[in-house]
Amino acid sequence: MAMKILGALAVLLVLGGAAEAGERAVLPLDQGWRFSFGAANGAEAPAFDDHGWASVSLPHTWNHVGGTKEREPSYNHERGAGWYRLNFTPPADYAGKKLWLQFDGASIVTDVWLNGVKLGTHKGAFGRFRFDATAALKPGQANLLAVRTDNSSPEAANSPTAEIPPMSGDFFMFGGLYRKVSLIATDPVHLDMLDDGGPGIYARAKSIDGKEAAIEVAERIANDGAHPQAVTVKTAILDESGKEVAASSETLTVAAGQTAMASPNLSVARPHLWNGKADPYLYQVAVTVSSDQGAVLDEMRQPLGVRSYRIDPDKGFFLNGQHLGLHGVSRHQDRPGKGWAISDADQRQDMDIMLELGVNTLRLAHYQHDQTIYDLSDRAGLVVWAEIPLVDRTSPKGMADTPPGFQANAESQLRELIKQNYNHPSIFVWSIGNEVNLRALKPGEGEHAKPLLTDLNALAKRLDPSRLTTMADCCEPGQGVTNQEAEVLAGITDVFGYNRYQGWYYQTPQDLGPVLDLYHKLHGSVPISVSEYGAGGALSQHSDNALDGVVFPKGHFHPEEYESRLHEIWYRQLKARPYLWATWVWNMFDFTSDSRNEGDMLDTNDKGLVSFDRATRKDVFYYYQAQWSDKPVVHLNGRRYPDRAYEVNDVEVYSNAPAVRLSAGGKDLGEAKCADYLCVWRNVRLSPGETVLTASASFSGQPVSDSVTWRYSGQPGVIDMRAGSPAGVQLGAIRYGSDDFVSGGTAVDRHPQPSPENPYPAVPAVGEGDRAVLFETYREGKFSYAIPLAPGRYQVTLRFFEPNAETSAKQRLFDVTVDGVAKLKGVDPFAEAGGALKPVEKNFTAEAKKGGLNLDFMPTAGQAIVSAIEIQPAR
Ligand code: GCB
Asked: Which atom of ligand 1 has the smallest separation from the CA of 553?
């Protein structure tokens, strides 16, 4: 790009580096700011004394939320006005230039003053915007830039954000100048700087055949000079080596104070297609605006990818005529400590990790991201879903209809999204909303989302007829999802996305496929995708068998293993549905959500495949990497759960090898075949103390292996187990593992659903002391435990109770048998304890055979029940 970027600004230093003819000079304004949070009367005036203010550099936010286990002293979730002041001296030879202040993104409402002169206000936390600073700026002298950014909650009294989407959302709205600010100098005649933050050049391949691509370009040339200007606009298409492969010139006269359009049509012979990750070939559109004397007035380059695509409701996504199965992730733009104020290096690291995972599509949720990530996507060949932050609501709280101010801002954010990103070949769909039928769940709070969505869709089609529109739905009823009040939104946009959490927030993980089939059938002509699916996974929380207990989505126990299991079940169903045009995991990284208090973190959504600090790839990361990337993957699960509750464990590996070999403590345990990228060795017995497990496979003769060290500190032949719970617990000297080795029955947790306000809801205690915790969960029904004990005689203790206070004796009767022989007969917990909610303990000895100890719980009335199982070798 013909741009000169001046080095970091030293405050009060006159900067050198004049803009040469035709070059835009870009002066980064990232250093030397003063900052203060809260009202600061008169802070826009140059004479205002900001000595007491903090010294900060950009990107910056005052908020510090998310990614911690405790409230730390640095925690700051204050929302309101933050003031920034910068004293700077731009080069003297900017005189006579047009000068623009560019903000790459500032949150949420931004007011800008230069030398006490108000330049303007921008509303919206994510778009780029520019103000004309020419009249107020003093080249070669000290200038004072004052900026107020206000991220007040839309629900605060007299909030300036009251009509700016998003009204709410599962992500924290950080405040401040969280992206770059720069001063750009152009000639008075230039490519339009005030076109909704767009580049002023908009190029697309209008039609493509094997022989040529017709490229349509729209260029906006603004004349801010006092006289009409005759200009020649040269448009060239350069190939990757920089060679000109097509060019055209147009001469026009731009009236003073006006903007004129040049609309060249070019043709690229034998176009080299932008073909996703396989070949993300980029051309550039180079536009040169020259005066009639031949002097270059402005120059700019934009990326151009020549590609075509279509999305079929039954067959999915086609790029350049070829089917491409799209699999990827969603991404938010925050980091612990930094919030949204992340660096270019952070953006690149995120992209590197996503590419390491093997994604070929990205949903950049729930708003416009920084240009860096779209640029990187262009170069990596990713298929991007880009969206505006119309989340949860289409109107302020309590209003059913969208008020005009809200509509105007949603439209303005959509214009910014589309114009600023029009030239990115990676972007394929514009999304106009996320879960805006959520409120319809609550009678009386519902909204009429359709009028706004219909208008936004039409606007997107007008601004960019070459791309498809989409949106993400949360709540369409169907298949057991009974929120019948929710509006059906499928069909408003060209294609559609369903955010689905079967098995996490509702229903079971197996319910995902059937509900998609239903929607596919109901909306046969609408291509559908799964725009979100995901589960929480806490790095420090583990389960011996996560599917055998109750996991509360809003609770404090989100075992990492549960996240893995759900993804395995979900993704198998998604892969089996070729009509889905794409799927996106929610989410690539854990992210800030101040409404959450769950898993092992505060203010954090832990559905990432990678931890918030990007340091830890959770096990499930490798499940997807094994199937999406070209990398040979052998990953042993469970490295964050090295202290095992049981002597005998299943060992799992994610791998893209057909089979993997395992050794434990140096002993070869043989090969396991990998079905659906998962290779499992059942009932691996650990030695007392440490056992090193090593999994290895050969990839075209190259060995790849992975090791973990597990420890078992209990006694051989001892099992202490909580039934119905995915979590173990230590009670005095006894370490109980989670529910395991079981088939049948239902796990029950007696706690009410936790909430952020009450993450540990109380439950009436059964029994006294520590042991009461065992009776907070149970398994009931008809069920069996096949406990992998070595042959021998064992002492068995079972603990249970009658959970139903409204019952009486003889309502629940069951036997417990071992290999068909009754050890307990006609157990009646109510009768034995003399009432409900009272603990019962039963003991017997039993023989384990070669296949272990098989306990069968056989109801004869009602359902069998057990809360704890304790086994030790009989003396
Ligand atoms: C959704 C939302 C997303 C949330 C996610 C969750 O459906 O679109 O913003 O973060 O659910 O984790 O609950």
From this structure: 13
Residues 6+ apart with CB under 8 A from 427: 374, 377, 384, 385, 386, 421, 467
Is the peptide bond preceding residue 424 cis, with omega within 30 degrees of 0? no
Which is the closest atom of ligand 1 to the Cα of 607? 12
DSSP 335-355: BTTTBT---HHHHHHHHHHHH
Closest CA to 543 of 564, 525, 514, 518: 564
What does 360-397 look like in DSSP terms, one character per residue? SEEEE-SS---HHHHHHHHHHT-EEEEE---BS-SSST
CA–CA gap between residue 362 and residue 348 (Å, rounded): 14
C-alpha 438/C-alpha 483 separation (Å) is 10
Q: Is 435 among the catalytic positions?
A: yes
Extract the tokens encoding 638: 């469970």
Q: What is the pLDDT of residue 327?
A: 98
Give the SS3 label for residue 816.
strand
Rounded to the nearest angstrom, the distance between the alpha carbon of 837 and the centre of ligand 1 is 38
Dihedral of the alpha carbons of 414, 420, 423, 425, in degrees to the nearest 10: -60
Ligand 1 pocket member 563 (CB < 6 A): no
Task: Determine the distance separating the centroid of ligand 1 and the alpha carbon of 835, expressed in angstroms.
Answer: 44
Closest ligand 1 atom, residue 169 Cα: 9
Q: Residues 581, 317: contact at Cβ < 8 Å?
A: yes
Cβ atoms of residues 488 and 476 within 8 Å: yes
**Cα distance between residue 534 and residue 78, in whole Å:** 29
Return the best residue to mutate from 586, 587, 590 for the ligand 1 pocket (most ligand atoms within 8 A of CB).
Answer: 586
Identify each DSSP E strand in 490-565 by its residue range: 496-499, 528-532
Task: Report the pLDDT value the prediction gives residue 875, as an integer from 0 to 100.
Answer: 85
Cα 170 to ligand 1 centroid, rounded to whole Å: 6
The answer to whether the CB of 494 is under 6 A from ligand 1 is: no
Q: What is the pLDDT of residue 483?
A: 59
Q: How far apart are CA 18 and CA 22, in angstroms?
A: 11
E strands in 258-321: 259-262, 265-269, 274-275, 279-280, 283-291, 296-304, 309-312, 316-319
Length of the chain: 875
Q: Which of 387, 435, 487, 870 is catalytic?
A: 435
Q: What is the pLDDT of residue 824?
A: 98
Please indicate whether residue 532, judged by its CB atom, sits closer than 6 Å to ligand 1: yes
Question: How many Å lie between the centroid of ligand 1 and the Cα of residue 472?
Answer: 10
Q: Residue 16: what pLDDT?
A: 30
Structural element, H or E, at residue 356 = helix 344-357
Contact 435 CB / ligand 1 (< 6 Å)? yes
Q: pLDDT tens digit string along 745-759?
A: 999 999 999 988 888
Chain position carrying tokens 């002041």: 85
- Ligand 1 centroid distance, CA of 533 (Å): 9
Choose among 722, 737, 761: nearest CA to 556. 761
Number of Cβ within a 10 Å radius of residue 501: 20
Atom of ligand 1 nearest to the CA of 593: 10
Q: Kindly list the distances between the CA atom of residue 211 and the CA atoms of 203, 272, 303, 818, in Å, as whole numbers in the listed order.
A: 19, 10, 21, 76
Instruction: Classify burial at 585, counting beta carbons within 10 Å of its beta carbon; exposed 0-12, middle 13-18, buried 19 or more.
Output: buried
Bridge-based pairing of strands 229-238 and 265-269 is: unpaired
Q: Assess whether the C-beta atom of 607 lies below 6 angstroms from ligand 1.
A: yes
Q: What is the pLDDT of residue 484?
A: 58
Q: Chunked in runs of 10, what are the mean pLDDT values of the chain (875 residues)? A: 39 32 85 97 97 98 96 96 98 96 98 98 98 98 98 97 97 98 98 98 94 97 97 98 98 98 98 98 98 95 98 98 98 98 98 98 98 98 98 92 97 98 98 89 78 98 98 85 76 98 95 96 98 98 96 96 98 98 98 95 98 98 98 98 98 98 97 98 96 98 97 96 97 97 98 86 93 97 97 98 96 96 97 97 97 97 98 95
